[in-house]
Write a structure and sequence with these properties.
The protein has about 375 residues and is of the alpha/beta class. An eight-stranded mixed β-sheet has the order 1-9-8-5-4-2-3-12, with helices on both faces. It is globular, with a radius of gyration of 21 Å. The chain has eleven helices and 13 strands. α2 packs parallel to α8, α3 crosses α7 and α9 crosses α11. α4 links the parallel β2 and β3. The longest helix has about 30 residues. It folds into two domains: about 230 residues, Aspartate Aminotransferase, domain 2; about 130 residues, Alpha-Beta Complex (Aspartate Aminotransferase, domain 1). The chain starts with 15 loop residues before the first helix and ends in a 5-residue tail after the last helix. Bound molecules: pyridoxal-5'-phosphate. Pyridoxal-5'-phosphate binds next to α3.
């Protein structure tokens, strides 16, 4: 059997070892060190923001941001519905209540219409959220020119979950810079990986300082260990940060590769009863994953495609299952884009994430395309 083609595997650039070796040579494999400081600086430079805090995961970043906005037991937090659970699990860590906001059809990101409805509800029920978590899905920016004024109008801060969108832009600005704080993930399947890690970015120096304090066990400045607040062990290691520095240098080329892969899928499957995630002309995505959606007119199902690819040892997946459909969040309210129709749920029912790794070869993609083609071509008798 041929080597497995993964959805989005790690892709080392070759520069990572240099920074890892530096850490070994100076015996500075842990805890924090030069690589961590430099990784923060270099990422700030890349996205065009003033302050950053490197962490053990993106989820830790969302947790610290919620804590920063004083989210506590009984509070409400709005969050994109079509996302990975890492976006909203931290709401439960703080014993607060998630309220889910459906997607709009244009970019599959948070619907401004649904967000308005949620705020009207919150106002009439006296359940104003402490924060709104807006996700940049599959590497494409949400429509911030429409979303941010709504949040501003109600005076509620925005946490931008750009875990999937490092390198993507919206109206010339990089994703991660639109909320009061932005979060990135360097988990194994993301566009760059440190094997595991995350980053919070912000222009609010005080906010980053406070979150840095909590992320390092809330150690008060004293010779002995003094703690006045609860803390967390959320920092990244100097080794992982070294991987991140090497990865960051290759990010733009990874985006080019992924864009090429996306364009190839779109062109080669043009005549099939499918469409791809719409690309808004307000920005350029990082093309993290190529996602197709089957037309109503076809009897082919996502399972048909996923199972057929699996027979050839190729990984593909359904879209994120919307959060309001997850048993763990079943009691949480959801606000739809339309009257009764949930955009996210219909996408989930008819979508497939295709192999999109920046290291996938043209021959490998050709294999994937061939299999999909065959599914749609009726067998000749
Ligand atoms: C991956 C991801 C996260 C969580 O990041 P981790 O580093 O895995 O904790 C959060 N939100 C979204 C949208 C993600 O895709």
């Amino acid at each position: 059997m041929q080597d497995r083609i993964f959805l989005s595997p790690p892709h080392m650039s070759g520069n990572e070892m240099k920074y890892i070796e530096e850490a070994f040579d100076s015996n500075w494999i842990a805890p924090l060190g030069t690589n961590v400081d430099k990784f923060e600086e270099e990422l700030c430079e890349y996205v065009g923001i003033n302050h950053a805090l490197a962490l053990s995961s993106g989820t830790a970043g969302i947790h610290l941001a919620l804590k920063y906005f004083n989210v506590g037991p009984g509070d409400y937090v709005f969050c994109s519905d079509l996302t990975f659970a890492g976006s909203c699990n931290p709401i439960l860590y703080q014993y607060a209540n998630p309220v889910f906001i459906d997607s709009e059809p244009e970019t599959w990101n948070m619907s401004p219409e649904a967000l308005e409805k949620a705020f009207h509800w919150a106002q009439s029920e006296n359940k104003m959220p402490k924060a709104v978590i807006i996700v940049d899905l599959y590497g494409q920016s949400a429509d911030y020119d429409r979303l941010l004024p709504i949040c501003e109008q109600y005076g509620v801060p925005v946490i931008e979950d750009a875990a999937e969108a490092l390198g993507a832009t919206y109206k010339g600005k990089k994703c991660g810079t639109f909320g009061h704080v932005g979060i990135f993930s360097f988990n194994g399947n993301k566009i760059i990986t440190t094997s595991g890690g995350g980053m919070i970015v912000s222009n609010d120096e005080e906010a980053i300082k406070k979150m840095r304090f909590w992320a390092t066990q809330s150690r008060e400045p004293a010779k002995h260990y003094e703690h006045r607040e609860v803390g967390y062990n959320y920092r990244i290691s100097n080794i992982s940060a070294g991987i991140g520095r090497g990865q960051l240098q290759a990010l733009d080329s990874f985006i080019d590769n992924r864009k090429f892969i996306f364009d190839t899928y779109v062109n080669k499957l043009e005549d099939k009863p499918i469409r791809f995630m719409p690309i808004s002309d307000s920005g350029s995505p990082n093309y993290w994953l190529s996602v197709l959606v089957l037309d109503d007119s076809t009897s082919v199902t996502p399972e048909d495609i996923i199972n057929q690819l699996e027979l050839s040892n190729i990984e593909s997946r359904p879209l994120w299952k919307p959060m309001h459909l997850q048993p763990v969040f079943e009691d949480s309210p959801i606000f739809f884009h339309g009257e009764t129709e949930c955009v996210g749920s219909s996408l989930f029912q008819c979508g497939v994430c295709l192999p999109s790794g920046s290291s996938m070869t043209e021959a490998q993609q050709e294999t994937v395309l061939q299999i999909i083609n065959d599914i749609f071509t009726p067998v000749k008798k």
